[in-house]
Specification:
0% strand, mainly alpha
Length: 280
C-alpha cells in the first residue's frame, strides 16, 4: 500500500498541521454548504420562492462565481492523506516519548524510583504492591510511547512517505521540578493524545479506504491507530489516578453523556496546545 499524496518536503511540522487542519475545516464547510443547498432546494420545491434556491438565473449564470462545491470559484482543497495524518500522530507520540524519557532516570531523566514511590505521587495507592510498582508503570508508559513512535515511523516507510513529524520539543517551565509537577503535565499530554486520535480517526479511515478501493478487510493503519488510541486512554486514566483525579468528567451538573463519551479534538485544537511545545 502506497500513499500518493505524501507530505510536502518543504513543510515544517507546524505548517503540516496547519495545512491539514485547513483541509479538514474546508471539507467540513463544504459539507455544511452542500447540506444548506439541499435544504434550499427542498424549500423551493415547497413553494418558498426562487430566492431560496438562488433566485432567477442562478443556475447557469455566466457571471456567477460560486462553484458547485460552494467555495466561490476557488479550487477545493483535497482531503488529508494517510501520510499527513500519520505524521500528525507521530509528532504527538514523539512529544510524549520525549517527555517521559526526560522524566525517568532509567532513560537519563530527572526522577528515579525512590523519587516516585516515596513521595506524594504514589501515595494514592494504599496497597503496597501498587505503590511500589508506580515507577515501573511509568516506565511502561514511556516504553509504549517509544513503541508507538517506531510503529508510526514504520508506517511512513511502508507508505513510501517522508517523515515530516516534529523531532524537537520544549516543555513548560517547572514540569520537571518535582514528581508531582511531572505527573500533572503528563496527564494533560495524555488527555490531549486521546482526544487527538479520536478527532483524526474519521479522516484517517476515509484516506486509507481510498487507497484500498473501499475494501475494509485491507485496512491496516486505521485499526493500528485505534489500538494506539485505546492504550493512550489507559495511560490517561493511570495518570489521572496519580493526580488524584477521576478518570472521566464528573460532578454536579455533568450530563451522563459527557461522562460516557469523550469529545474528540480537531487538529486545530490540538495544535493550539501541542504547538506551544514543538520546536521543529
Amino acid at each position: 500500500m502506497t500513499d500518493p499524496d505524501s507530505p510536502r518536503p518543504d513543510e515544517t511540522p507546524k505548517q503540516l498541521f496547519a495545512r491539514v487542519s485547513e483541509q479538514l475545516s474546508r471539507r467540513q464547510m463544504m459539507g455544511n454548504a452542500a447540506k444548506a443547498g439541499v435544504g434550499a432546494l427542498a424549500l423551493g420545491g415547497l413553494g418558498a420562492g426562487t430566492a431560496a434556491a438562488g433566485g432567477d438565473g442562478a443556475m447557469g449564470d455566466d457571471d456567477d462565481t460560486t462553484s458547485d462545491d460552494g467555495t466561490d470559484g476557488e479550487k477545493p482543497m483535497g482531503d488529508p492523506s494517510v501520510a499527513d495524518i500519520v505524521n500528525y500522530a507521530l509528532s504527538l507520540e514523539r512529544l510524549e516519548a520525549t517527555y517521559y524519557k526526560q522524566a525517568l532516570a532509567s532513560s537519563g531523566g530527572a526522577f528515579d524510583q525512590r523519587d516516585i514511590e516515596c513521595g506524594e505521587v504514589s501515595a494514592a495507592f494504599g496497597v503496597p504492591t501498587l505503590r511500589n510498582s508506580t515507577y515501573q508503570e511509568l516506565e511502561d508508559v514511556r516504553d509504549h510511547e517509544l513503541f508507538h513512535v517506531e510503529a508510526l515511523e514504520g508506517v511512513l516507510k511502508k507508505l513510501g512517505a517522508e517523515d515530516r513529524a516534529a523531532t524537537k520539543f520544549q516543555f513548560p517551565d517547572g514540569v520537571y521540578d518535582s514528581p508531582e509537577s511531572f505527573v500533572r503535565f503528563a496527564a494533560v499530554v495524555e488527555d490531549l493524545g486521546v482526544a487527538a486520535y479520536a478527532g483524526a480517526a474519521p479522516a484517517l479511515a476515509k484516506a486509507e479506504l481510498a487507497l484500498v478501493d473501499g475494501d475494509t478487510s485491507k485496512l491496516q493503519v486505521t485499526p493500528a491507530a485505534l489500538g494506539i488510541h485505546s492504550i493512550e486512554a489507559r495511560h490517561a486514566s493511570f495518570l489521572r489516578t496519580l493526580n488524584r483525579q477521576r478518570p472521566w468528567a464528573f460532578g454536579e451538573g455533568v450530563e451522563l453523556a459527557d461522562q460516557a463519551i469523550d469529545d474528540p479534538k480537531t487538529m486545530e485544537a490540538v495544535l493550539a496546545v501541542a504547538g506551544e511545545y514543538i520546536v521543529e
